[in-house]
Specification:
The protein is of the alpha/beta class. The chain is built from six helices and eight strands; from the N terminus they run βαβαβαβαββββαα. The strands form two sheets. Strands 1-4-3-2-7-8 form a six-stranded mixed β-sheet, with helices on both faces. A two-stranded antiparallel sheet has the order 5-6. The protein is globular, with a radius of gyration of 16 Å. This is Alkyl hydroperoxide reductase subunit C/ Thiol specific antioxidant domain-containing protein.
Length: about 200
């Protein structure tokens, strides 16, 4: 399946405009914040997200991955994960700020060397786009970095289970999963070793 790869940054595009265009042109928008190419949990998460792209696109959805990491690292991210969808580079957290101001998602920003304005911690927002129910939140999640989740690295909800629930909501059915399995350290290592 051939998909257009669109890589943008604050120098070439406005992250807020990118969000607004996607929301206006698709039935729903799926946003995944990731920390950077150096985070094995993020890379594992994006691999899983890549496997869901055809199904999400087939249902009329659009996926955007968002990072505060410099755009020069996106090729490494794509190589490590196989992710071919659209990416938003937002080092100044313009999109995160707007989402928080609108009460949609409160992405946690923490200090980290190499990130002038801080690193955006993992977060997910799935929101209805054009058509009936526009703007309705289908799923939202943010990690609050703590020692127990390795500073925001682990304990992420299972993307496949999230997609199951989003599909159910889109079809007006009850959710499939009352609780989500969380990414553990051993689970991430297992997936890196055995694919």
């Amino acid at each position: 399946m051939s998909q257009n790869i669109i890589v943008t940054s604050t120098e070439s595009s406005d992250p807020i405009k990118q969000y607004e265009i996607a929301l206006a042109n698709y039935s729903f928008l799926w946003i995944v914040y990731f920390r950077g190419h150096w985070c094995p949990f993020c890379m594992s998460y994006l691999k899983t997200l890549q496997s869901l792209l055809p199904s999400i696109g087939g249902a009329g959805g659009k996926v955007l991955i968002v990072t505060a990491e410099p755009a020069t690292h996106l090729p490494a991210t794509r190589k490590a994960t196989g992710y071919v969808g659209e990416a938003v580079v937002d080092p100044e957290h313009k999109l995160a700020t707007m989402l928080k101001e609108k009460g949609l998602l409160d992405v946690q920003i923490t200090k980290k060397a190499g990130y002038e304005f801080g690193v955006a911690q993992p977060a997910i927002l799935v929101q209805k786009g054009r058509g009936a129910g526009e703007g309705e939140i289908l799923f939202d999640w943010v990690i609050v970095p703590r020692t127990m989740n390795l500073g925001g690295a682990k304990d992420r909800p299972d993307l496949t289970q999230i997609w199951d629930n989003v599909q159910a909501k889109l079809q007006g059915k009850p959710v499939v999963h009352a609780q989500y399995s969380l990414t553990s350290f051993t689970g991430m290592i297992w997936s890196k070793i055995f694919g």
